[in-house]
Amino acid sequence: MEETYERLPEEVKINGLKIAGLTAKLVKRTENKAIYYRWDNVYEVFRITKADETKIFETVYPKMEKYPSSDDFGKTAWNYRDKRLAMEAFDRIPDEAVYIPSRTGGDTSDDL
């Protein structure tokens, strides 16, 4: 039985690129790979990362799909300015998710 992860939204806000208000909209996806189009004319093609439930400090984050971070580009994510090249890349990459195992972090009294 396939495990259920909270799916990526149809539109995501992208942080960390120093472009205020940058968003990306879903163009195409399968269960394990996707293409999003950013309004600055960039297509992002990637294998979807699936993260298990994680506890950081006292906050528990559910199983969820994650948008690629800057560290993922060149490994499991790529960007293109040409839609045709993005679609070709989408067709070439494996339809296999990237999994992040469950982890915990943060200050707890057990760590002292």
Describe the structure.
The chain is mainly beta. Helix content is 9%, strand content 38%. The strands form three sheets. The chain has a five-stranded antiparallel beta sheet, with helices on one face. The protein has a three-stranded mixed beta sheet with strand order 8-5-10, with no helix packed on it. A three-stranded mixed beta sheet has the order 7-6-11, with no helix packed on it. A hairpin with a 2-residue loop joins strand 6 (54-56) and strand 7. The N and C termini lie far apart (40 Å). Mean pLDDT is 88; it is low at 107-112.
Rg, rounded, reads 16 Å
Q: Helix- and strand-based class?
A: mainly beta
Overall helicity: under 10%
Strand order of the largest sheet: 1-2-3-4-9
Indicate the proportion of strand residues. 35-45%
Secondary-structure element series? EEEEEEEEEHEE
Residue-averaged pLDDT, rounded?
88
The biggest beta sheet, please?
5 strands, antiparallel
Task: Compute the separation of the termini in Å.
Answer: 40 Å
Number of strands: 11
Helix run count: 1
Give the overall shape: globular
- pLDDT < 50 runs, ≥5 residues: 107-112
